[in-house]
């Protein structure tokens, strides 16, 4: 009988199983969902056309949930982020809309695309912006990048970071994590920003805030985090010091103008995979990591499993909510209820040895919640 799978090298299976077992130990949120939802199988009957990343992931990490994995042409959608998924569903596979109850999006840029489509009236299916969940945006984007940025730079270059001047372009959640990581390892950190609130946050955290034009000739390491385009361009490269390290951890590869380097450098040497050294006409050299793509994925292995457990648990809960309680989510963009956000956080506490203080009835009444209800009023922003 012909096997119903195609694998390039089955000899990696045993190694992969060991990796999954390690990941399971570091993903208490998903393991909690396995115990809670495994017996009831809430995603039973999900149509094959529901090509969402979380389904593929859950099938691997939560085998107790017998999910239908997409096949044929919709399989390509599993490989893309949610914003690409949304575009493909609308433009390439409109016939799938009849089977899909909703989609979830967990990237900042993907969520932006969802809101843009909704504003223009082009959103035809219900969506949950997982990225708006506190346990996603404030964990994956901030704490994940805080760990994986340095991992990527170190694996790629083995450079000594302490004492060097590092520029972080953008002080959103990703920029906050990157700035903290660089300062924590001893770098002197400068931030560039367009938003006055973020700029003020960076300033009162003790970072110097200035423009790329003012700082590009002085720094040793550059990290872009904005998810916007044209952050570091040719005019900046021409002023940079010799052998500066330039990398991106924003979602798209348009922040650093690598094409300018390819067209204007007098020579290019590939030092090792994902590490390229361009020599400019002025004799100074620029080291580009991961060709301007995500440095933590191109030069390392991305975020640790623990922080991704928060994101994937959010994704799983969003998919379960859309599939089992679709009536509560009419056409539009929704956030996961705060109660589910807290459920995600609570699922990770035991792993860290955390014990929560319980409200007394008087305390609960004083802040207007039930003893077993949300710790803070719903409007509270963490």
From TrEMBL:
<comment type="pathway">
    <text>Amino-acid biosynthesis; L-homocysteine biosynthesis; L-homocysteine from S-adenosyl-L-homocysteine: step 1/1.</text>
</comment>
<feature type="binding site">
    <location>
        <begin position="249"/>
        <end position="251"/>
    </location>
    <ligand>
        <name>NAD(+)</name>
    </ligand>
</feature>
<dbReference type="InterPro" id="IPR000043">
    <property type="entry name" value="Adenosylhomocysteinase-like"/>
</dbReference>
<dbReference type="GO" id="GO:0033353">
    <property type="term" value="P:S-adenosylmethionine cycle"/>
</dbReference>
<dbReference type="Pfam" id="PF00670">
    <property type="entry name" value="AdoHcyase_NAD"/>
</dbReference>
<feature type="binding site">
    <location>
        <position position="296"/>
    </location>
    <ligand>
        <name>NAD(+)</name>
    </ligand>
</feature>
<dbReference type="InterPro" id="IPR042172">
    <property type="entry name" value="Adenosylhomocyst_ase-like_sf"/>
</dbReference>
<keyword id="KW-0378">Hydrolase</keyword>
<feature type="binding site">
    <location>
        <begin position="107"/>
        <end position="109"/>
    </location>
    <ligand>
        <name>NAD(+)</name>
    </ligand>
</feature>
<feature type="domain" description="S-adenosyl-L-homocysteine hydrolase NAD binding">
    <location>
        <begin position="141"/>
        <end position="302"/>
    </location>
</feature>
<dbReference type="InterPro" id="IPR020082">
    <property type="entry name" value="S-Ado-L-homoCys_hydrolase_CS"/>
</dbReference>
<dbReference type="InterPro" id="IPR015878">
    <property type="entry name" value="Ado_hCys_hydrolase_NAD-bd"/>
</dbReference>
<dbReference type="InterPro" id="IPR036291">
    <property type="entry name" value="NAD(P)-bd_dom_sf"/>
</dbReference>
<feature type="binding site">
    <location>
        <position position="198"/>
    </location>
    <ligand>
        <name>NAD(+)</name>
    </ligand>
</feature>
<dbReference type="GO" id="GO:0005829">
    <property type="term" value="C:cytosol"/>
</dbReference>
<keyword id="KW-0520">NAD</keyword>
<protein>
    <recommendedName>
        <fullName>adenosylhomocysteinase</fullName>
        <ecNumber>3.13.2.1</ecNumber>
    </recommendedName>
</protein>
<feature type="binding site">
    <location>
        <position position="303"/>
    </location>
    <ligand>
        <name>NAD(+)</name>
    </ligand>
</feature>
<dbReference type="GO" id="GO:0006730">
    <property type="term" value="P:one-carbon metabolic process"/>
</dbReference>
<feature type="binding site">
    <location>
        <begin position="172"/>
        <end position="177"/>
    </location>
    <ligand>
        <name>NAD(+)</name>
    </ligand>
</feature>
<keyword id="KW-0554">One-carbon metabolism</keyword>
<dbReference type="GO" id="GO:0004013">
    <property type="term" value="F:adenosylhomocysteinase activity"/>
</dbReference>
<comment type="similarity">
    <text>Belongs to the adenosylhomocysteinase family.</text>
</comment>
<feature type="binding site">
    <location>
        <position position="193"/>
    </location>
    <ligand>
        <name>NAD(+)</name>
    </ligand>
</feature>
<dbReference type="Pfam" id="PF05221">
    <property type="entry name" value="AdoHcyase"/>
</dbReference>
């Amino acid at each position: 009988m012909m096997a119903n799978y195609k694998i390039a090298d089955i000899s990696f299976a045993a190694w992969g199983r060991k990796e999954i077992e390690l990941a399971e130990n570091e993903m208490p949120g998903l393991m909690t969902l396995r115990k809670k939802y495994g017996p009831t199988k809430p995603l039973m009957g999900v149509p094959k056309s529901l090509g969402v990343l979380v389904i593929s992931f859950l099938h691997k990490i939560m085998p107790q949930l017998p999910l239908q994995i997409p096949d044929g042409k919709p399989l390509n959608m599993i490989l893309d982020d949610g914003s690409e998924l949304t575009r493909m569903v609308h433009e390439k596979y409109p016939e799938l809309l009849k089977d899909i109850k909703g989609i979830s999006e967990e990237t900042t840029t993907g969520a932006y695309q969802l809101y843009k489509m909704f504003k223009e009236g082009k959103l035809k299916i219900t969506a949950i912006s997982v990225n708006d969940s506190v346990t996603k945006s404030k964990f994956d984007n901030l704490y994940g990048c805080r760990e994986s940025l340095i991992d990527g730079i170190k694996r790629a270059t083995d450079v000594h970071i302490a004492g060097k001047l590092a520029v972080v372009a953008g002080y959103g959640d990703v920029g906050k994590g990157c700035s903290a990581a660089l300062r924590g390892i001893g770098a002197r950190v400068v931030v560039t920003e367009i938003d006055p609130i973020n700029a003020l946050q960076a300033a009162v955290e003790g970072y110097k805030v200035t423009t790329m034009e003012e700082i590009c000739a002085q720094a040793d390491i550059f990290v872009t985090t904005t998810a916007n385009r044209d952050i570091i361009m040719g005019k900046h490269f021409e002023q940079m010091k010799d052998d500066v390290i330039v990398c991106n951890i924003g979602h798209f590869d348009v922040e650093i103008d690598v094409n300018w380097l390819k067209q204007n450098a007098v020579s290019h040497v590939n030092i090792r995979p994902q590490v390229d050294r361009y020599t400019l006409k002025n004799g100074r050299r620029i080291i580009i990591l991961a060709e301007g793509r995500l440095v933590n994925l191109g030069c390392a292995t991305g975020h640790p499993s623990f922080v991704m457990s928060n994101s994937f648990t959010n994704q799983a809960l969003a998919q379960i909510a859309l599939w089992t309680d679709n009536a509560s989510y009419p056409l539009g963009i929704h956030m996961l209820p705060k109660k589910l956000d807290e459920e995600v956080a609570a699922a990770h506490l035991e792993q860290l040895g955390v014990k929560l203080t319980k409200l007394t009835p008087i305390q609960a009444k004083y802040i207007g919640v039930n003893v077993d209800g949300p710790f803070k009023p719903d409007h509270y922003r963490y």
